[in-house]
Design a protein that fits this description.
The structure is a homodimer of 312-residue chains. Chain A has 312 residues and is α+β, with helices and mostly antiparallel strands. Chain A contains eleven helices and twelve strands. In chain A, 45% of the residues are buried.
């Protein structure tokens, strides 16, 4: 329904899209599903996409912040992520032992035993979405100004979901604009990005659909949370067919968090109300993969208009 | 001995350099020592530095590869990193339990207990240096061509060494050129970068010294390894004074691994010999911090020649 195979795209064969990406050297195997290196060309497509996002969003003068791919564990605990998505989280563990412990560790490794059991949790957890480290940082500055705040984020994120679908990687990059303010300010922001996001992807000539969506909440309680999220239309996704035509991939998402992060991290508006937040997220690798799927892996043969939009 | 405080730099006060970076918004606290957000200006300085590196090294037509900030655990085990630097490594652990396990986990979090004990090691380990994921990838392609190979890498890396020294971060970026080939090919590469690296830093007007160095090997055996490494002059560092004048910081390093990685990962030359490898590493954050320390945190007042070299 979404993607038609255009002229010049790879013909359907027994080879998977992931295999084709490996064969062309665009992605590089590491031995772990969902953990791949990227070629210079893959990165150049991505740079072009990021510049395109900035052309569409840069006029708003968002404050640029770049976090490393990890965050403080106590902030992560407070965020409620382990309640909703425990299966996706990655905690960072370290060796804190003595030289004698180290000898034992080395013996275990030599004997192919499980040496990781002795690793201890550090203060650090991998970032699950680019905006998670931002909320406590913003709250620390005090009440928001009357016009609220707008941030421009990008970071590598981690989600533990090993898969052969190249659009479902364990380590991937997410660009985000995050709006904080009154309910009116943040819902207006999300509505405007629902339009802009479609214009942006249309500029790349990719067929897409926009639909209401839900996050992959864990367990039985999670099912109810997902239904609520859909009923309240808190999450929309811009979907493009990559690995499957039946199950297109969310490449952009438009999220209204209501007062969840405001309450959790003590973020307040100029009037002293609990702040509302919303974000638009761009799946960096997913958009690159959508382009490679739609126009084929021979980038020199992409339409001139698309190459021009991406500065390629 | 190295850095003189230039006109326009921040005067010495009771405030640490890290505090000054926080106050100016160049780095952003996360609550964990060595884990910081970066401002748009900090990133712009870094972009300028990376372009400068490319101007000095780009003519060699290195193959660009970008890995995410993690690598496969089995490759990591094979690399010998846990033997030499166990204290610095970060393993990634996940929740693999049932809904019942999840209930117990949530109770532990609510009671402020140690919920991380139930986390299980994933197949993923954080990257300790940008080149670690590369060696098995290169070996998989078969014997090197007669001219060897040259790669251009950059990634976030992790080392567990919490510190208040902003030049010693737990998550930091490392740019690397990695050369693989015969002993002659790789030692010539390193010798040429020892010159180029100095020319590059001289272009930024930063006072520096180059010295033989050693890695922070663990334990008593580690002391011997360090002595050997120095005796054989396998590691040189380009040092710039950042946090301390007495102990200047390694901002670039020039490493000759001999056949360590070649042997470990089965990398061979065109003649069927074990390949030798060498790398030059650029501490991305460290060079930015050296600039901010030397010229002050008001970038608009930096010398025009430096701003021009960085495209600022």
């Amino acid at each position: 329904m979404l993607a038609k195979t255009p002229a010049g795209a790879a013909p359907a064969t027994g080879t998977s899209f992931l295999d084709e990406l490996f064969d062309r050297g665009l992605l590089i195997e590491t031995g772990v599903d969902g953990l791949y290196g990227r070629s210079g060309l893959f990165e150049a497509i991505g740079d072009g996409f990021q510049a395109l996002v900035t052309r569409h969003g840069g006029g708003d003068n968002a404050e640029i912040v770049r976090f490393p791919p990890a965050m403080a564990r106590d902030v992560f605990e407070k965020s409620g992520y382990m309640k909703s998505f425990p299966q996706l989280a990655g905690t960072v563990h370290c060796f804190c032992g003595s030289p004698a412990d180290h000898l034992a560790l080395m013996q275990t490794i030599e004997q192919k035993g499980d040496w990781t059991a002795g690793q201890q949790a550090s203060e650090i957890v991998l970032t699950p979405a680019a905006c998670y480290p931002l909320y406590p940082t913003a709250a620390k500055r005090g009440a928001l100004p009357a016009e609220g705040r707008l941030f421009d984020l990008m970071s590598y994120c981690f989600r533990h979901e090993p898969s052969k679908d190249p659009a479902r990687q364990q380590f991937f990059r997410m660009r985000e604009y995050v709006r904080m303010g009154t309910p009116d300010q943040v819902t207006e922001f999300r509505a405007s990005w629902l339009e802009r996001g479609q214009a942006l992807i249309a500029e790349l000539g990719l067929p897409f659909a926009v639909d209401v969506a839900n996050d992959p909440f864990f367990g039985r309680t999670g099912k109810m949370l997902a239904v609520n999220q859909r009923d309240q239309r808190l999450k929309f996704e811009l979907l493009i067919s990559i690995e499957s035509e039946e199950n297109p991939t969310a490449c952009l998402s438009f999220n209204y968090h209501q007062d969840h992060f405001g309450k959790t991290f003590g973020l307040t508006t100029a009037d002293g109300e609990v702040a509302h937040t919303a974000c638009v997220g761009f799946g960096h690798e997913r958009v690159i993969l959508a382009l490679l799927k739609h126009y084929g892996t021979d980038v020199a043969r992409w339409p001139a208009s698309v190459r021009s939009a991406l500065g390629l």
